[in-house]
Amino acid sequence: MAEERILIVDDEYLIRWSLEQNLEKEGYKVLQAESGEKALEMVASEAPDLVLLDIKLPGMDGYEALEKILKMDRDVIAIMITAYEDVERVVRAMKLGAFDYITKPFDFSKVHLSVQKALSTSQIKREVKFLRQEKKNRFGLDNIIVVSPSMQKIITMTERLAQSDTSTVLIQGESGTGKELIAHAIHYQSRRENMPFVTVNCAGFMEHLLENDLCGHEKGSFTDARELKKGLFEVADRGSLFLDEIGEMNAGMQAKLLRLVEQKTFRRIGGVKDIHVDVRIITATNKDLEKMKDEANFREDLFYRINVASLKIPPLRERREDIIPLAKSFVQKYNEEFHKNVQKISKGVEDFFLSYSWPGNVRELKNVLERAMILGDGDTILIEHLPMEILPRPSNQAGSSEGIHIPPEGISLEKVEESLVRQALKMTGGNQTRAAKLLDISRDALRYRMQKFNIAEAYFAP
Ligand SMILES: Nc1ncnc2c1ncn2[C@@H]1O[C@H](COP(=O)(O)OP(=O)(O)OP(=O)(O)O)[C@@H](O)[C@H]1O
Ligand SMILES: [Mg+2]
Questions:
Q1: Is 181 in the pocket of ligand 1 (CB under 6 A)?
Q2: How confident is the model over 88-104, as pLDDT tens digits?
Q3: pTM, two decimal places
Q4: How far is the CA of 256 from the CAs of 96, 157, 203, 242, 253, in angstroms?
Q5: Segment 120-135, tens digit of pLDDT
Q6: Of 117, 150, 226, 257, which has the maximum CB count within 10 A?
Q7: Which atom of ligand 1 approaches the CA of 181 most closely?
C-alpha cells in the first residue's frame, strides 16, 4: 500500500515535531505547515490524505483554513487540534466538516486511534467515489453504441427522461435489444445517479413473497421474521426501481403492484406506520403489453400507470447501421478482456452480419463475437469462427468436403440452383450485391440466374 500522507498544521514547532516523531514511527509520511496559509499551499501541492489542524493559528485561523481546505479537495479529511476540550469550539469545527478532534497535551494512543479511523474513512470515501465513477462510466451514454436514426431518437428521449426525473418509464423491445442498458442510462444521467438503482425481476417472483420483498417486514411480524427487513421499495428510496419483465406478472401481483406504483406509500408487513418513498419507477418487457391489456391479460389501470412515458427499442434487424459499429466495439471489449489483438472482421463475416436476422438482437451479436474471439487466434474474425447454427445451410454444406448430398432418387440441379438463389435473396432482403457474395458469384452472374429462374427483384425487398 502507498504511504499515507498526513499534514500537521500548528504554529508551535514542538507540537509539530512531537506529532511527526510519533506518526512517522507508525509508518506515515508526515508533512508540516506552520500557518493556515501555508497549509492551503501544501494541500494543493502535496495532496495529503489527512490534515491535523490546530484551531488557534496566527493569521488565518483553523476554522477558515478548514473550510478552504475542504473546498479545495473534498477527499481530504481533517482532525482538529485544540488546547482544551471546549464543546462550542469542537461543535463548530465538526459542523464545518471536521472528522474528529484531539486535545493538547496529546494522549498518543488516542491520536493514533483517531488517525486510523480518519484514514480508513478517507479510503472508503475514495473507494465509493471510484466505484460511483466506474458505474457511471459503465452505464453512461458513451457506452451505448448508436448509429441508426431510430436509436438516436431513443437516446435523445433517454436524456430527456433522465432530466424529467420522476415520470414512470416503460421500455419495450425484443429480448437482447438493450432495455436494461437504457434503464441504467436513465438512472445514471438523472439527479438520482448517486442513489441506488434496484432491479426486481418480476418473472422470478413468487406471489406470496412479492409483498415481503418489495415492502419488507417488521421484526416479529411472522415466525421467521427475526429482524426488521427493509423492502426493495425502501432500499430504492431517492433512487430508481427497475421492474424488469413486468409482462410476466400474474393478476394477483399486478393488483399489489398497482397500489405501490400509484401511491409510493406502503407498510412493512406487520407494520402500523405508512412509509412514503421517493422512487422513480422504470419498467421493461419484451411482451406486447398493449396487446396483453386488450386481451385482458394485463390490468388496464396498471398499464396506464406505468406507461406514462414509453420507449420502444427496435430490433437489431431493423437498424442494420448499428451492427458493424456494435460488432467493432465488442471486438475491442473482448480484446481487452481476453488480452487479444483482433484487428479486423473479415468482409465475409461483415456481410453475413448485415444479412442475418439476429433473433437474439444485440445480446446474440455480443455472444457470437465473444465465442469467435475465444476460438480465433489470428488478427481477423473469419466465417469459420462463427457458430454453425446461425450460418446459412447451403454454405455450410458447400463448405464441407462432401458438398450437397444427392438423394438416391436423384436431384434437379436447376432446382437446387434456383432454391439457393432465392434463399440468398431472401436472407439479404433482396440486396443483390450481398446475395451474390453469399453465393460467391458475381453480381452479373446472379442477375443472369434471376432472369433465368424468373425471380422478380422487388419480391425480396424488405
Ligand atoms: N446499443 C448498445 N451498445 C452497446 N451494448 C449494447 C447495446 N444494446 C445492448 N447492448 C448489450 O447487449 C446485451 C443485452 O442488453 P440488455 O441486457 O440491456 O437487453 P434486454 O433488452 O434487457 O434483454 P432481455 O429482454 O433479454 O432482458 C448487454 O450486454 C448490453 O450491454
Ligand atoms: Mg433485460
A1: yes
A2: 888 999 999 999 999 98
A3: 0.72
A4: 46, 30, 15, 16, 5
A5: 998 888 888 888 888 8
A6: 257
A7: 18
